[in-house]
Amino acid sequence: MLSVFGMLMLFVSYIVYAERRVSAFIQDRLGPNRVGWQGLMQPWADAIKLILKEDIYPDKADKFLFFLAPFIAFAPGLITFALIPIGSLDFSDPQAALAISNINVGILFILAIGSLNFYGLAFGGWASNNKWSLFGGLRASAQMISFEIAMGFALISILMTAESVNMNSIVHSQTGTLWGFIPRWNVFVQPLAFLVFLIAAFAENNRLPFDMPEAEPELVGGYHTEYSSLKFGLFFLGEYAALITMSAVIVTLFFGGWTLPWVSQETMASWGWGPIISGLFSFAVFIVKWFAVMFFYIWVRWTLPRVRYDQLMNLGWKVLIELAFLNILITAAIGLWL
Amino acid sequence: MRESYITILMYITFVLVNGVIMLALSHFFGPRRQGRGKFDPYECGVPIRDEAHKRFPVKFYLIATLFILFDIETVFLIPWSVTYKQAGVTGFLYLLVFLAVLTSGFIYLWRRGALEWD
Amino acid sequence: MILDALFLINALLAVGFAVAMITRKNPIYSALCLIATFFPLAFIFLLLWAPFVAMIQIMVYAGAIMVLFVFVIMMINTEKQELEAGKPKWYRRIAGAIAFLFVIVGFYSIVMGINSIAPVDSSIKEEFGSTAALGHLIFDKYLIQFELVSVLILVAVIGAVFLAKKNLD
Description:
The complex is a heterotrimer of chains A (about 350), B (about 120) and C (about 170).
Chain A: H1 2-26, H2 42-51, H3 63-80, H4 106-114, H5 117-127, H6 131-162, H7 167-172, E1 177-178, E2 182-183, H8 186-189, H9 191-204, H10 216-219, H11 229-254, H12 265-270, H13 275-301, H14 309-337
Antiparallel strand pairs in A: 1-2
Helix pairs in contact in A: 1-11, 1-13, 2-11, 3-4, 3-5, 3-11, 5-6, 6-9, 6-14, 9-14, 11-13
Chain B: H1 2-29, H2 58-111
Chain C: H1 2-23, H2 27-47, H3 51-76, H4 80-83, H5 90-113, H6 131-138, H7 143-168
Helix pairs in contact in C: 1-2, 2-3
């Protein structure tokens, strides 16, 4: 448990670094390369800097909520990661997952705790007593809740293919192949759901092209304009933790989690590996997929321009919800009559 | 299964304690200096014009209401989605009745322009 | 034994937050306390072998309904003087008396019914409160109620749009 948390924190700090380096590469700059070899110590320098900054409470700010908001924003992303099966200890037992916890209602827990992220942004914006913060908070929260519905609908078609809300069962429903040559990953079985989920996930995480809440030209910094020192740091951590967890969720739901493509569970079980080797191997598989999705996140950020707020809301309410809805009906029809 | 809930509770506590430690760190190590105008809300450098907490468009309220309703719809779809094969065609038809009523509501609010964001 | 202790802790927490909610002057803190109330409640559902309901409790109440509350509180921008309630008017007194009556009736029924609360039965199967079990129940025993929910939501959609649109035009 401690190791998973430590690993997460490490990943969170290094994805910030990775993002800066990749964006620099994409824009033909150098990026942070001064602290340590190739700038690898940059996250530590940033952390120390944030600790040594003054902790400012602006005038007329609501002190308690101002303190609480970064806290709420930081926790959900890290907590929900506990449910992600990042590997398997025994290939012959579907439920022997390498995860902090394996509860039966796994994906619902992720949805429930994930929806609490809203309060961090809303309270942060409101408590700062700054109009830009409040605007940012309101936009962020309205955007989040709008896309949560599309996301939930997309998720339902995945639950239909897996016929379970347990994360391990969802992973196991994706083993084997489709017509003998395509891996039975949900990204191929449910391409429409994947598309909707991916777009909604970007909007949920306030990533470009949907980063309206912090649109710098309009809103200074959005909901965290007034925050300094590690309070700002917690917002930042929370945002990237949510990104990392969301990538892990996408891998689990759509890319078969820790399973290998084209290799059936029976074959893997027949290798007869012990729990440690199985765990390490499946975790390695997971990490490859996971990093690919995270890289995609960063890549998109530097490729697409920001959309307008009304376009965003239209996309969420008038396009994605309908598509996801249609997909549920198609899935049901195929599942029942074919 | 029970142990899973206990581990997750422990993990949640752990995460929260970590958050507190981090906030405490910057509280104790950060400097504390007074300064004129330093604690004013940020306003791009100009003196503050009117209050931050204003009334906001009713749109946001409408979005939140619609969100609740569709969230509840999702909640009802989840139990169906894991048992839709057992529920069979009849179950699907029952669900279609449910969805048809809700879709009529969705069409209504679309036609009334509740989804326009201008 | 440990289940009883867990129940007691969570019940006390829930009641504590609920009391805190009605005694706060600032509405946003009331909302916060109400949100906090839902977590011990969800935990109690877990103790009752109902993980699905526990998650829905957080997802719908804390994650959706309170969102609306917080939005409204943030938007209506209550002034200080509006918050300081004036002298109780006569209808407020009547409302208070009725509420007090409810509290007494509630306490009475709890005290009378306390013997009938069965201890958590360990023979309950794990499938008892699962999502699939609920799915079967909805399409079997509670089908009509399920269909009626759609009508209820429809009414709410129309009402919300109607009220909001009246303000917009």
